[in-house]
Recover the amino acids of this structure.
C-alpha cells in the first residue's frame, strides 16, 4: 500500500516511477566504513538516502534481511517489499557472544530471485538490503553479487543503527532514529515464510 502511495506521490511531483529512472544518490563515504559493512559492489546508502530514492522510484526492490522475530518485535521500515532473512536465529545460546547463535538461510538467494521476478525486476535492477546496523546486509549483498546481481545497495546504518558505546543503546543513526516511516504491523505479502520442506 505504501508503495502505491509513494508512486502516486512521485507521479504528482512529475517524477518517473520506472525502475532505474531516478538517480540513486549516496552520502556515504565508503572510506570510513567498518570492514564488516563493505561489499564487493561498493554501493552504500544511509536510510535517508534510501528513503529519498524509494520516494522518487518506488519500483526499487527493498529487502529487510533481519530475522523475522526481529522484524516482529523491533519493527520494520514502511515500504519494504519483503523480509527475507539472510541468517535465522536459533535457540542455541552462544555464551561467548552473549546472544543466540544464528544460522545461514540456505535459500536466501533463491528467495530474493523469486521476489525480483514477482516485482518484474532482474539482477541488474537496484535492490536495497537492510539489517539491524549494516553487517548482515553486507553479507546479503556479497551473496547476491556472487550470483550475478550487479546493483545491490547496503543500507549501512540499518534499521536500528550503530551502538552508542557509553550507553550500549542503538541510538546513533539508522532508519528508526532518523524518524523515517516504520511500523510493527507487517503486510502478509512482505512477511517471510520458510520454504516448504522437500
Amino acid at each position: 500500500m505504501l508503495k502505491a502511495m509513494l508512486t502516486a506521490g512521485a507521479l504528482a511531483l512529475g517524477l518517473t516511477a520506472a525502475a532505474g529512472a531516478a538517480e540513486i544518490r549516496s552520502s556515504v563515504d565508503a572510506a570510513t566504513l567498518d570492514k564488516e559493512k563493505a561489499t564487493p559492489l561498493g554501493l552504500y546508502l544511509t536510510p535517508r538516502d534510501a528513503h529519498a530514492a524509494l520516494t522518487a522510484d518506488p519500483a526499487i526492490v527493498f529487502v529487510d534481511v533481519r530475522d523475522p522475530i526481529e522484524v516482529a518485535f523491533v519493527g520494520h521500515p514502511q515500504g519494504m517489499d519483503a523480509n527475507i532473512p539472510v541468517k535465522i536465529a536459533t535457540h542455541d545460546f552462544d555464551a561467548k557472544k552473549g546472544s543466540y547463535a544464528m544460522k545461514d538461510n540456505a535459500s536466501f538467494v533463491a528467495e530474493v530471485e523469486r521476489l525480483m521476478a514477482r516485482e518484474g525486476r532482474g539482477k541488474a535492477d537496484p535492490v536495497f538490503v537492510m539489517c539491524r546496523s549494516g553487517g548482515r546486509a553486507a553479507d546479503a549483498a556479497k551473496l547476491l553479487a556472487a550470483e550475478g546481481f550487479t546493483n545491490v545497495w547496503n543500507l549501512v546504518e540499518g534499521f536500528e543503527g550503530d551502538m552508542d558505546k557509553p550507553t550500549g543503546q542503538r541510538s546513533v543513526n539508522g532508519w528508526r532514529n532518523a524518524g523515517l516511516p516504520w511500523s510493527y504491523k507487517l503486510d502478509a505479502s512482505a512477511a517471510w515464510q520458510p520454504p516448504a520442506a522437500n
Observations:
- The beta strands are 44-45, 61-64, 76-77, 82-83, 87-94, 99-104, 127-130, 152-155, 182-183.
- The domain at 2-183 is CATH 3.40.250.10 (Oxidized Rhodanese; domain 1).
- DSSP finds five helices and nine strands in the chain.
- Residues 135-146 form the longest helix (12 residues).
